[in-house]
Specification:
The protein contains 8 helices and 14 strands. The strands form 3 sheets. A 7-stranded mixed β-sheet has the order 10-9-8-11-12-13-14, sandwiched between helices. A 5-stranded parallel β-sheet has the order 1-4-5-6-7, with helices on both faces. The longest helix is centred in the first third of the chain and has 15 residues. The chain is globular and about 60 Å long.
């Protein structure tokens, strides 16, 4: 007797509805219906409007600040667990709170570990995410984590540009491993920016390690927040004789006056993914969708096939 694996059900948190629609369409499914009831004081309650008993379900939601985005994911996981879903996968294109991955001074939390434990307690049996701020965050989970790399999106784009004299740059020492991986794939040189911070999001001093004169430079990073580092690095490289400077960053937080900084900088363009909904538009910001990447991995996870081809770095 043959057995057909039932198709999974796909849902999305409110902050990731647009991306959820794209992923579901790419998967060849409809996005499941969830209703959020809201109280006047801001409290909310999700409700699955269809049976999920015994099903494999995927819940799509990035957990960028504010904290209600994480709370939505936790409540949906708990609701799915209590509705007797068989497998509950949290699909988190952006894993928020990941910059707090260690104690870098006394009396501070390790928020990334706390979030990992909350997700598991709420009911997640698997995590699918992309370009974690620190690879070791995978070790905070006791459940399987599929850590995807946006290089599968960015490398084809960079190759299409056919830039000569290409140099890959990291905006800080911590991103050097990522920069070297891109340079190996593209056969290019690498330069590193060394920066000292006065405080969070404020750069006191930046210096360049390597030569960029007459080079087309591409800065690579996992996220862009206020865009202070990227724009300062771009301006510094142009002052040192670079032909052009582009930046590719997976997660476009783009908070504060980030768009204004980008518009006024010497960046040729900033390429990001749609892991986080864009706050506004800019002619300098190009968005590559990660929907096909996640839908493909979700399909492979559901049918228990390898996802090794999605790990280019």
């Amino acid at each position: 007797m043959s057995y057909t694996v039932p198709e999974p059900k796909i849902f999305a948190c409110t902050q990731s509805q647009e991306l959820g629609q794209k992923i579901a369409k790419s998967y060849g499914a409809d996005l499941g219906k969830v209703i959020f009831s809201r109280y006047s004081d801001g409290e909310f309650q999700p409700s699955f409007e269809e049976s999920i008993r015994g099903a494999r379900i995927f819940i799509i939601g990035s957990t960028h600040p504010g904290p209600e985005n994480l709370m939505e994911m936790l409540l949906m996981l708990d609701a799915a667990k209590r509705a007797s879903a068989r497998h509950i996968t949290a699909v988190m294109p952006y894993f928020g709170w990941a910059r707090q991955d260690r104690k870098d001074k006394p009396r501070v939390p390790i928020a990334a570990k706390l979030v990992a434990k909350m997700l598991e307690t709420a009911g997640a049996t698997r995590i699918i995410t992309m370009d974690l701020h620190a690879d070791q965050i995978q070790g905070f989970f006791e459940k399987p984590v599929d850590h995807l790399f946006a290089s599968t999106l960015f490398l084809p784009y960079l190759k299409k540009l056919k830039l000569d004299n290409l140099t890959i740059a990291s905006p800080d020492m911590g991103g050097s491993k990522r920069a070297y991986a891109y340079s190996k794939a593209l056969g290019s040189d690498v330069v590193i920016c060394y920066k000292q911070r006065a405080k969070a999001n404020v750069i006191e001093h930046m210096e360049l390690i390597g030569e960029v004169e007459d080079r087309n430079v591409v800065l690579v990073d996992d996220m862009v927040d206020t865009a202070g580092t990227l724009t300062k690095a771009a301006d510094l490289m142009m002052e040192r004789g670079a032909r052009s400077v582009r930046a590719i960053t997976t997660h476009g937080l783009l908070s504060g006056n980030a768009f204004e900084r980008i518009e006024n900088s010497r960046l040729e363009e900033l390429i990001i993914t749609d892991s986080i909904p864009a706050r506004q538009q800019s002619d300098k910001v190009r968005v590559l969708s990660c929907a096909d990447l996640f839908s493909d991995v979700m399909h492979r996870v559901h049918h228990n096939t390898s996802i090794a081809s999605k790990f280019l770095m």
